[in-house]
Each structure stands twice: as C-alpha cells, then as structure tokens.
Amino acid sequence: MSIAGSLHGRTSHTPASVRSGGRLDWAGQPDVFKKYPASFARLSLAELPELRRLLFLCAGLTARRVYGETVWFLRANPSAGALYPCELYVQARGVAGLADGIYHYEPGGERLCLLHGLGEGDGLESCCEDNRRLEGLVLLVSAIYYRSSWKYRDRALRYCLLDSGHLLGGIEAAALCRQEEYAILCRIDRQRLRHCFGFGDQEHAMAMVVLGRRGRERISRLAMELPFVSGTGTFTANPFIEEALRQIGRPVHCRPAGAEIRYPFAAQTLEEAITRRRSIRAFSRAPLLRHEFEAVLATAAMAAAMDCDEPVRILAVVNRVAGMAPGVYADGRCLAAGDFSAMARYLCLEQDLGGDSGATLFLTGGPDNYLPLLLKAGLMGQRIYLAATGLGFGCSGIGAFYDQEAAAFLDTDDPVLYALAVGR
Ligand SMILES: Cc1cc2nc3c(=O)[nH]c(=O)nc-3n(C[C@H](O)[C@H](O)[C@H](O)COP(=O)(O)O)c2cc1C
Description:
424 residues, alpha+beta, NADH Oxidase, 6-stranded antiparallel beta sheet, 13 helices, binds flavin mononucleotide
C-alpha cells in the first residue's frame, strides 16, 4: 500500500472507532495563539494599511464568540473544531515602510513580531527550488499539530493539512482581491526551515506562497537560528503524526500548474465574502439553483498556481438543486440517480448538514503525494466556501465522515479526502 493509503487508512473513521473515542483532557487544552517572548520587537500594522488588510484577508480574526467567561475568535479561514493549528510567517523585502526581515503575524493585535533582519544574500528563497531573490512578500504557513491532535488524535494529521490548504486558499483569494501574482510552493526544504525557525518536532512547515517580483540574484542562505518557542503551552507528543509528517515532507513527481482561478463575481464581492465567511450550522433545505451549484464546482475545479498541483475529483451527492435530478454526479455526469440524502447524512457521521444540504461534495484523489494532495483539497474547500458565500448561500467543511463506507458508496478506489456541504 502507498504511504498515503496507509496514513489515510490509519486515520479513518468507522462506526466502531467513533464510538470508542476518549474524553478530552481539558487541563491539556493548547493555546491557539503563538507568542514570541517580549524580547522580540513588535510592530503595529496600523502604519501599513495595505499590508494590514492583506494579512487580515489571509488570516485575520473576523468574528468573536463569548462562551461564559471565555472569548473565542473565529478567523478568515475555517478550521476543524475551530482549533487553528496554523501559523503565518511573513518575509518582507523591499516593502515600503517595513525593514527587510522575517516576521511572525499576530492576528490578535494585528502586529508583526520581528524574528530576523535580512542580511545580504539571506532569505527564505534559499529554502525553495527557485532561489531567485523575491522583491515583495514570502508567506510561510506552518502547523502546530498538537492544537488539533489534543482533540482529534491521529486524524489531526489530515486536519492540519486541510486547514493549511484552507489558509493557502485564503491567501490565494486575498491575492486575487489585490490583483497580485502569487505562487504556492510545496517543494520547500522543510528540514532547513525546521532548524532555522526552531520548530523542533511540534511545528511543521507546510507550504510557502510568494507574492512579488523575482530578481536575478540567488539567495543561498538563511542566516537565522531561532530558539524553540512553544505555540501551545502544554504539549503531548503524537509519534504517529510526527513520523507521518517526516514521511510526506518531500513531494515527488510534481506537476506544476499556472493560476486559472476566477471567482464568479467581482473582486469587491470576493473581499466581502472573505470577511463574512462562516460555516453554516443548519440548512433550511431550500434548493440551490443549478447555475449556483455549477459555479461553485467550476471555481473549485480550476487549477491552482502550485508547484505540485495534484488532481482532486469532486463527487457530488445532489440533494436539492432545482433543475437537477437527485443523485451522485461527477465530471458533469449523473453516475447514479436517486435520493441519497439519508445516505449522505449517515456518511457524514450522521451530521444533518450532510443530508439537509443542496449538495454534499466528496473530494477524492491520490493515492500518492499526500501532502500536496491534502493541501489542494483544503484549498479547494476554501474556494467552495468563498464561492458559496459570495453567491449568497452557505457551506460547511465536514472532516468527519466514514471513510471506507463513503468510498464504497461513491464507488471509488481513491481515498475520500474531505467533504463539504453547500446549500441554504
Ligand atoms: C477541515 C475541516 C473539517 C471540518 N469538519 C466539520 C465537521 O465535520 N462538522 C461541522 O459541523 N463542521 C466542521 N468544520 C467547520 C468548523 O467547525 C468551523 O470552521 C469552525 O468552527 C470555525 O467556524 P467558522 O468556519 O464559522 O469560522 C470543519 C472545518 C474544517 C476546515
């Protein structure tokens, strides 16, 4: 069996595994914001409104919820269980008003924490295959797995990858709003990054996004050696996830793609959709219109400007779309006609969202190149959320589904990577 197949199998849900789930260790609940010590300089983004807006659109705090004494922030990107394993680092070079350096983004205060001033020939480009100097921004997405494994144990491996993909989709959308060219890089030197950022085994570099102009000069070193800083407070190691991340850290046989993404509405609507996006918690069961459903699928299916663009297929259980017979659809064809809403609900761990939706989409792919594959599925998930929001209806990611039963029902040998319900 391929690495991807065995990792996916190990983290599968079955009716038995779901019933045997343990209790949450509330004393071990991880922090969701990483804070570097006060000795690192902070810089308010208030003086840099363009960069502030860009980073807000990528990863900002867009809502707050109060539960008793606890305040919980929701972000531009969805996250399995709202556990937010991802962090965002920013390299700025030649950005007016900002010293060339590598910073950590603090969404709470909308600040940058300076980690390293760039020297001559020094920068994150040295950890990329194309190490030409980048005038502009390099964004690094990482994941601190314990934030998710605290609750989801081994299955958190998927959620860290899917959440990272959502963040990449968020960066893609923010770049589109700003009409900036961007490229997503999965083929990065994760070992060097681990060493230079002091991540240890707790935090893992997932991908980079470059936004700006390439020069000719080669950047061949990263002269930064940060101390380890915990992003969770408490921590319990998960050896399976650490080993899995080591195994999948070097994507192979990559097919790069150019950006084709266009949303079915103007940039202003996209920007509003990013700031308004939420996961719908219940559907009214009113139908979607056929052109709405097709617009969401078309947006999700466009190529991503990724150096390792893995094909991900969408199998849609159509429950309520005006002008379409209920059934299972893929590649523009009906594969099986019938009302499968009860089945879709069951497959989504008996969550009503799966059955009450206009359509429940199952993303499949693989079985190789697990890291870029899951990143791509998450990125497509972000496009589905934003397209649905901009068109005026709802969406929810569904990471919890019965894996083997979903694949059997959908009649596919490929692993089911992720599900999303769209509707109103
Ligand atoms: C990978 C992933 C899996 C998710 N799985 C589920 C799920 O199984 N059921 C559910 O109701 N919501 C699910 N969600 C939605 C999250 O609960 C939601 O994003 C989070 O609570 C934050 O709220 P917001 O999306 O409104 O900002 C998932 C989200 C992501 C990104």
